[in-house]
Specification:
Two copies of one chain form a homodimer. By secondary structure, chain A is an alpha/beta fold. Chain A has one domain: Transcription Regulator spoIIAA (2-Layer Sandwich), CATH 3.30.750. Chain A has five helices and five strands. The first copy, chain A, has helices at residues 23-40, 57-72, 84-93, 106-125, 130-135; strands at 6-9, 12-16, 44-48, 76-80, 101-103. The first copy, chain A, has a five-stranded mixed β-sheet, with helices on both faces. Chains A and B meet through strand 1 and helix 4 of A and strand 1 and helix 4 of B.
Chain lengths: 136, 136
């Protein structure tokens, strides 16, 4: 069975989807990701779909499911590398990718996750000056 | 035709090989990588082979070719995520992966590339204290 590899880069897990997702591969990926998030304590998941020519409703649902699972495990999910044609098709199909953040590339995705984490810290602290005090 | 995506993370290009490489895919990947190294000025290429069950002589030659091309373009190549069974098979087949550095995972690969770059800087400077003076 095909298994999509999960790469750990710092605080982030990176998944590059290159193969056609079967039901089984999708379920396996969700399980593997959930396990890795817990095992590594990662706070972000980046899913690269550069290689996908088509994002149909099945893949869309899978991405949403991954985002929901990650959220429960306190990790942000960002989908990166979407091709222009894929974006157009998504809109034409009326698929909205619920609860999924997107970014242009992996680097932007990492920035987005870092920013989201920083926001959460501020909210948790209830301290607007956290950034300035941290650097002093 | 399948095309292996190349992800840019900071100063490094990351390639995760998940599909069976045909002649055409391999040539395409080499061309794409060479172009991206030049376009981005990257100094490191990390090739993740976590998904590969087998590294035969064809894939071995492809990895060596990528390493040679990258070297000419002033980029280090590190192969990461090799499975234990793959390593055993490589040795049994007598394949040596000429000129290829390996690391356990992407993070170690990044460290290896950073260390290799630092060494080069020292050599170019001819200054053993470059590290301490840079921080002062």
């Amino acid at each position: 069975m095909e298994r999509v590899p999960i790469l750990k880069i710092g605080d982030i897990l990176l998944v590059s989807i290159q193969v056609d997702m079967s039901d089984q591969t999708a379920v396996q990926l969700q399980e593997d990701l959930a396990e890795r998030i817990v095992a590594t304590g990662s706070h972000g998941v980046i899913i690269d779909i550069t290689a996908l020519d088509i994002v149909d409703s099945f893949v869309g649902r899978m991405l949403s499911a991954i985002a929901s699972i990650s959220k429960v495990l306190d990790a942000e999910t960002v989908v990166v590398g979407m091709r222009p044609a894929v974006a157009i098709t998504l809109v034409e199909l009326g698929l909205s990718l619920n609860g999924i953040r997107t970014a242009l590339n992996v680097e932007r995705g990492m920035e987005l996750i870092a920013a989201a984490r920083a926001d959460e810290w501020h909210e948790a602290d209830g301290d607007e000056d956290a950034e300035t005090t941290a650097t002093s």
